[in-house]
Amino acid sequence: MTESRHPAEGRNRPGPAGTSSAGTKVLGLVTIAGLVTLVLFAFVFSPADTDLGETVRIMYVHVPSAIVTYLAFALTAVGSAVYLKNRSEFWDLLAWSSAEIGVLFCGLMLVTGMLWGRPTWGTYWVWDARLTSTAVMFLLYVGYLALRRVPGEGEVVARRAAVVGLGAVLIVPIVHKSVDWWRSLHQEATTLGQLDPEIDGLQYFTLFLGMAAFGCLFVWLVMHRFRVAYLARQVESSGLQAAIAERRAEAVGDGSAAESRQTSTSEGVSP
Amino acid sequence: MFRDAALVFGKDLRLELRSRVGLNQVVPFAVLVLVLFAFALDPDSGVLTRATAGLFWVAVLLAALLAVQRAFSVETSDGVADALRLSGLEPAGIFLGKVGSLAVQLIALEVVLGAGVVLFYGADPTGVGLLVVTALVATLGLAAAGAVYGAIAAGLRVRDTLLPLLLLPAVAPVLIGATQAFEAALDGVPGDGWPWAALLGIFALLYLAFGVLMFGPLLEEA
């Protein structure tokens, strides 16, 4: 039945009991150092912009959030595709973890964008191509996370979520190119591709510092989220194994009812 | 694959002809939505006439949710899902059959709704060519996306609440594109609408290809 497919079974080596390891501790310290340096450069060292004034400083959070969001959803798509191919629990959980952190950064991108839009455009929200497509992307992945939370259906949900995770990524290039394809109020992409001569050298450096720091933060968060998800699976399956063992012990004690109990147990197991 | 598609297509339409759930429930619901829009947006101020294209497609989308629920609830009760898997039909064929029967039902619905907006909202149907082509490609995309997400939500205990959350953002491009194309047609500038119709065609092709590839894993059971 299904329980034999569960990777946790048959593995006697106990998994890690926490989500921290030497690697993530070092990465965490690097991330903190990066974020502190970013705050210093964003608020103190880098100059105000000639056009945008002081509001340019919010870009050092907004643009890295956008890049990390793209990265996270791309990783979800890769994880989903590999999971559909070889049904590996690792890639399934990685896709899930990455999507969750991606939605977090997508929300951060939307909020910082709105806060920037208010003083610059005079309104929190405009229904232009970039903002609209980003909102749709956000909702698509909220739907993905809702599907992942459907209780008690195990592998069925994992497989269907993988299909959603693979399909939803199609919107990422649309969001990215929307400023070129439709006339948009949002500025065009300034960082990827060509170097914009209008942007000051120190501002440029701060932007890249922000991307590096946010990249580290993303990896750190995904690793912890992944380990939490992995441990949750272990607890789930160990509870299941314990319940099965208990029933088996009962059945052995009461020989006449053993067969009927056996069948009811296997029914209870299959999701 | 196409023979299997034709079988599923015929089966679904026969089910509809005999049960008339679409005719008795989904179509009246869509007309009801049109009437509710008239209550919500003051009919005398001309908002209804200006917003006709968008309201028409929102009504189609809401009714499509019900049609998709229906198309997959008939497959999950009484162990039909297992029978379908055991039938040896190709998953891609089942997908295409579902898309076909959904599309036919949605087209019928759109004809009724089209008459509704002409009669109630005073819409003046100009640019008929663009209207028809847009409706066809938009419906195909809607049916393809509906079949994919309908299968994803099918059989889950939370399917009724999950399907709108998954499907509506995914078909947001259809709402945008079809509304823009319809507006262009109704405003008498069909030239502005054709690129949107082409975009809807690309959307439909993408979702058809995606569904053909993905229906296998979706029909599998643990």
Tags for this model:
heterodimer, A: 271 residues, mainly alpha, Four Helix Bundle (Hemerythrin (Met), subunit A), 0% strand, elongated, B: 222 residues
Task: Report on this structure.
With 271 residues, chain A is mainly α. Chain A contains 8 helices and no strands. Chain B has 222 residues and is an all-alpha fold. Chain B has one domain. Helix content of chain B is 84%, strand content 0%. Chain B is built from 10 helices and no strands. The longest helix of chain B has 30 residues, at 91-120. At the A-B interface, α4 and α5 of A face α7, α8, α9 and α10 of B.
> What is the mean pLDDT of chain B?
89
CATH architecture of chain A: Up-down Bundle
* Secondary-structure-derived class of chain B: mainly alpha
Largest sheet of chain A: none
Task: Give the topology, please.
The complex is a heterodimer of chains A (271) and B (222).
Chain A: H1 22-45, H2 59-86, H3 89-121, H4 129-148, H5 154-168, H6 171-181, H7 201-253, H8 258-269
Chain B: H1 2-19, H2 21-40, H3 47-50, H4 52-76, H5 80-86, H6 91-120, H7 128-153, H8 159-170, H9 172-186, H10 190-219
Q: What is shown here, in short?
A:
The complex is a heterodimer of chains A (about 270) and B (about 220). With about 270 residues, chain A is mainly alpha-helical.
